[in-house]
Specification:
It is built from ten helices and seven strands. Helices cover 55% and strands 14% of the residues. The protein has a three-stranded antiparallel sheet. Strands 1-2 form a two-stranded antiparallel sheet. Strands 6-7 form a two-stranded antiparallel ribbon. It has a single domain, classed as yeast vps74-n-term truncation variant fold (Orthogonal Bundle), CATH 1.10.3630. The protein is α+β, with helices and mostly antiparallel strands. Helix 2 crosses helix 3, helix 2 crosses helix 5 and helix 7 runs parallel beside helix 10.
């Protein structure tokens, strides 16, 4: 699979602010990319929803290392678990896999260095801004275009729905959320259970962080 046909890769690029030269979603990035992989597997028929839980239907590799990593997690589980569980289960591994795929395809460059010789940082450079702009235009058309919701490409619908769930404002602004509330709900319903699960996972993550701050 070409990286830009992958939902996790698309959402990684959309999370990158070209003007500021950095990723914008902070702690939400890892759950967002994991949710994108789960949504891709669900739309592709490799995962099914059974009573709100993810179940592996086909454990055969897809050929995409990002998706296969997540599929192996789900298919290797001793019992079915909720979509929200898989979104929150060690999601940083998906970030690493997506980043490596985009480096290999020449879309980004990753440089690791230490600030003041002590603090490790990772600098990401977008090498193909045109690809990111193309992905952004597809998402914009899905959200704001004249096409009926049922005719929107499912991948584009997934990108918009997941971006909205993660408050990714480079895709869905606050004004968009108000103006396209009904369309966003309809797009999300077409995509399946993952966008709602992502929203719940991020709410739980935020609540956990707030609780930790109070200790």
């Amino acid at each position: 699979m070409h990286p830009l046909n992958s939902l996790p890769a698309r959402l990684f690029l959309l999370s990158f602010d070209q003007e500021r030269g950095r990723l914008t979603v902070g702690a939400a990035l890892a759950p967002l990319l994991r949710a994108a992989a789960l949504a891709e597997l669900h739309l592709g028929g490799r995962l099914a929803d059974t009573g709100g839980k993810a179940r592996a239907v086909a454990a055969t590799p897809s050929g995409d290392p990002v998706l296969d990593q997540v599929l192996a997690l789900v298919s290797g589980s001793a019992k079915p678990r909720s979509w929200q569980h898989w979104i929150g289960y060690r999601p940083k591994s998906t970030v690493v896999a997506v980043r490596e795929a985009l480096v290999a395809s020449g879309h980004i460059r990753v440089e690791r260095r230490r600030v003041l010789g002590l603090i490790p940082t990772t600098r990401i450079t977008l090498l193909d801004p045109g690809a990111a702009t193309h992905v952004e235009s597809l998402a914009s058309e899905a959200l704001r275009g004249a096409w009926p919701v049922e005719e929107v490409d499912l991948r584009d619908a997934a990108v918009v729905s997941l971006a909205a769930a993660a408050n990714l404002r480079t895709v869905v602004s606050r004004a968009d959320r108000r103006s396209y509330r009904k369309r966003l709900a309809e797009l999300s319903a077409r995509v399946g259970p993952v966008p709602a699960a992502l929203r719940k996972a991020l709410q739980a993550q935020s609540a956990g962080s707030a609780g930790g701050d109070g200790d």
